[in-house]
Write a structure and sequence with these properties.
CATH topology of the largest domain: Alpha-Beta Plaits
Helix content: 25-40%
Shape: globular
CATH architecture of the largest domain: 2-Layer Sandwich
CATH superfamily of the largest domain: Lrp/AsnC effector binding domain/regulation of amino acid metabolism (RAM) domain
Radius of gyration: 20 Å
Largest sheet: 4 strands, antiparallel
Oligomer: single chain
Number of strands: 4
């Protein structure tokens, strides 16, 4: 992996983009104390370096609930019977394309994976669990925790002192 040099202006831009990526370049430049051409050039470089993976809209589950229902969020611990690299990769490849799996982490110690899963309801979760976990002969243990309330959701990476709250 190549070495990446970032200065304070790059970190300011990244922090501002994490806060609100929909800002115009003009506004972003003003907030970062840069000229608009410099801001544009730096953001383009940060994208090319792969530091900005993608820009998405974060939806409000509470505002969507009257239309879609609250749904069901579960944190699921998965322990595999065999933990060889090929078995870990196979399980990961099995869950990554599934839309209900919002996040997938390989963890240690303890279970092999922790998943964040969002389904429409409990029957939807049960169908997902059957399809992904129960029918997989290599899954030894499943432990699910169901969210009662989302107290905080912040997909922002801390970028050191001077980064936002």
């Amino acid at each position: 992996m190549e070495s990446i040099d970032l200065d304070e202006a790059d970190l300011r831009l990244l922090d501002l983009l994490q806060e609100d990526a929909s800002r115009s370049n003009q506004t972003l430049a003003e907030l970062a104390h840069l000229s608009p051409p410099t801001s544009l050039r730096r953001v383009k470089r940060l994208r090319q370096l792969g530091l900005i993976e993608r820009e998405v809209a974060l939806l409000s589950p509470d505002r969507l609930a009257p239309v879609l229902g609250h749904g069901l969020t579960a944190l699921v611990e998965i322990t595999l019977e065999r933990q060889g690299a090929e078995h870990l990769d196979a399980f990961e490849n099995r869950v990554l394309p599934v839309a209900e799996v919002q996040q997938c982490y390989r963890v240690s110690p303890g279970p092999d994976f922790v998943l964040v899963v969002h389904c429409a309801d409990m029957p939807g979760y049960l169908a997902l669990a059957q399809r992904l976990f129960t029918s997989d002969a290599n899954v030894r243990n499943i432990k699910a925790f169901f969210s009662l309330k989302r107290a905080k959701f912040q997909p922002r990476l801390p970028l050191g002192q001077g980064s936002g709250p």
